[in-house]
Give the backbone structure.
Amino acid sequence: MEIKVLKDILSANDQRARENRALLDEHHVFTVNITASPGAGKTSVILETIHRLKDRITFGVVEGDVSSSIDAKMVGKEGVPVVQINTGGTCHLDATMVSNALSNLPLAKIDLLIIENVGNLICPASFALGEDRKVLVASVPEGHDKPHKYPVMFSQADVVILNKMDLLPHTDFDLKAFESAVDGLSNKAQILRVSCKTGEGIEAWIAWLLEQLPAC
Amino acid sequence: MEIKVLKDILSANDQRARENRALLDEHHVFTVNITASPGAGKTSVILETIHRLKDRITFGVVEGDVSSSIDAKMVGKEGVPVVQINTGGTCHLDATMVSNALSNLPLAKIDLLIIENVGNLICPASFALGEDRKVLVASVPEGHDKPHKYPVMFSQADVVILNKMDLLPHTDFDLKAFESAVDGLSNKAQILRVSCKTGEGIEAWIAWLLEQLPAC
């Protein structure tokens, strides 16, 4: 009974996600869905991306949080159109929430839409939003065992950004163990070692992102 | 319709949590439910607690994870009875899962039962398990804004362990901002500054825990 309800919800979500994707395609908007644990650095990655590329492409951002509009305010300062979704108590964004956000964004003027999902390594994996690519931000202080503990999220990622590399000397994080665990879960995900604090690896991330984008 | 289903689930869970609590009380087992983001250090806190107190009290541990038994193996090495719950895809423990675990633990021989919840700052807040106290482990590299983003979890906590204090000099974490945000959400939660790596604050955590325990 409960499983039936969940299947209905997921199936309705997939349908809405396809509608989002069709709308985004119609407006030539390329969309990435960024997921992570709380505090891994999703917002920092987004801000770095805007800084590096805002003279070349146009952005839109959807900020998903259970509560608060801290991230939307930071992104808004960059002069980028942003919509904050507060989920109330829901632990993920779903396609209907994103659909509502899209109707509040100037899609015709956006090349790249970045959706910052709720900080959670579990449920966002079950809810397609209409994105072209899934980006997972992990971080060094969380530990190298996270791919084993949250395998679905890691297996779906098109790219894994391992952020906070600057903290590596201060932890017992095992890079090889992390990277081989990710490789074991996904044969598509590229792993990028990044520090938003020092700038390490940001160029590689930008290069990866530009490769994905259709010529604009 | 969907809301009705959720209400039914939560109400059934509360009933089962009361049954767990009655069973635990009957066996004089004091129970803590530990929640956190992925990688904040729940397992390290549990291991430190066992190390410091295993000559004085007896332990049981329930390990909740979406996948893997990494944590249960680490705890098992300490000679403590441990049950691993793999939730499959569910992002929290519920009272029924814990009830099943309890039937596999020697309750008559346990003073303190530690339940390590799934790494997630959202949904575990909605599911009572039958615990006496709620312990929230936050960590410095996650950033000081987390209480604003996950207010329900922080407002419910009886104690907030701020772990990874050793990383403070390497981050822009604002202790005052974090602590005043926690204070604003809860007038009961004590905040303990801890580093499982250096041992800082572990004595204060042990003292807090012993104060909660009934004389045994």
